[in-house]
Design goal:
Helix content: under 10%
Protein name: Bacteriophage lambda head decoration protein D
Order of helices and strands: HEEEEEEEE
Structural class: mainly beta
Number of strands: 8
Strand order of the largest sheet: 6-5-1-2-3-8
Pfam families: Gp80 (PF23140)
Strand content: 35-45%
Radius of gyration: 15 Å
InterPro entries: Gp80-like
Shape: elongated
Length: about 120
């Protein structure tokens, strides 16, 4: 059942952005489904791959949006983006995932990611 009250959806969306303890989260990129642990995270490259910090801002009607991040990636195929509580933490810091359109980089490159969460 979808939540019909816009203000209630926004309260729930705002709660999602504080799962990491603040309105900051870290974005990762994965070569396959990360499951519930953050598996298959990208690695390597020059410049080296690393998770990037985003800051959530509130919208209306159940939407929050994170600041766009630029992630350096080595050549590979990428299928998922992850959300973490920290820049380097392990599976206990993994928050969520989303499938993306499969993206293949034939050489070192970058992905620009703008995270959005919509509570329905």
């Amino acid at each position: 059942m979808a939540i019909t009250v816009s203000a209630t959806r926004q309260v729930l969306a705002d709660a999602y952005k504080t799962i990491a303890g603040s309105n900051v989260a870290f974005i990762s990129v994965h070569t396959a489904d990360p499951g519930t642990t953050g598996a298959n995270e990208a690695a390597g490259g020059t410049p080296a791959y690393e998770r990037k910090q985003t800051t959530w801002t509130s919208g209306t009607g159940g939407v929050i949006t994170g600041a766009q991040v630029t992630i350096d990636l080595p050549a590979d195929t990428y299928t998922h983006v992850g959300l973490w509580k920290s820049a380097t933490g392990g599976e206990s810091d993994f928050i969520d995932k989303v499938a993306i359109s499969s993206t293949t980089l034939g050489a070192q490159g970058q992905l620009l990611i703008t995270p959005t969460f919509t509570q329905s």
